[in-house]
Specification:
- This protein is mainly α.
- It is about 70% helix and about 5% strand.
- About 35% of the residues are buried.
- The N terminus is likely disordered.
Length: about 130
């Protein structure tokens, strides 16, 4: 249950491959903001033993993001390519870590991630919607 492959996979979606379609996906601000929220929640639930993930909520949300991309004209192949690009996975980790830092947390400090996770849950944020306290 601890392993949330869907979250890990979708968390990598926030970047581009350099081709026209991928570059377009990289410019979809709302999709990328959603993906960053999923990435942050995934890291928090992996590092904080007092918080777990809400798998079905996250899965439903990521499907909605994929559907949004398809509605905007991106093919499944383009979305898959976007998901699997190593450089873009690294960019997503940088965005996620910058978010943590802006909130006074560190991706290297589980306790700070627990504190952030509890605040996200209490604040009913998008990130918090993917988490639950144990």
């Amino acid at each position: 249950m601890r392993k949330m492959t869907t979250l890990a996979l979708v968390a990598t979606l926030a970047g581009g491959l350099g081709g026209p379609a991928a570059a377009g996906l990289d410019e979809e601000a709302d999709i990328n903001a959603g993906l960053m929220a999923v990435a942050a929640a995934d890291k928090i639930r992996r590092e904080c033993s007092a918080i777990s993930g809400r798998l079905w909520v996250a899965r439903s949300y990521t499907r909605a993001l994929a559907d949004m991309a398809k509605d905007r004209g991106y093919s499944q192949a383009e979305i898959d390519a976007y998901v699997n690009d190593r450089a873009e996975k690294a960019k997503m980790r940088e965005r996620r870590n910058a978010y943590f830092k802006s909130k006074g947390a560190s991706n290297l400090d589980p306790e700070s991630l627990c504190t952030l996770g509890r605040a996200e849950i209490a604040g009913q944020t998008q990130i918090g919607s993917f988490l639950k306290a144990k």
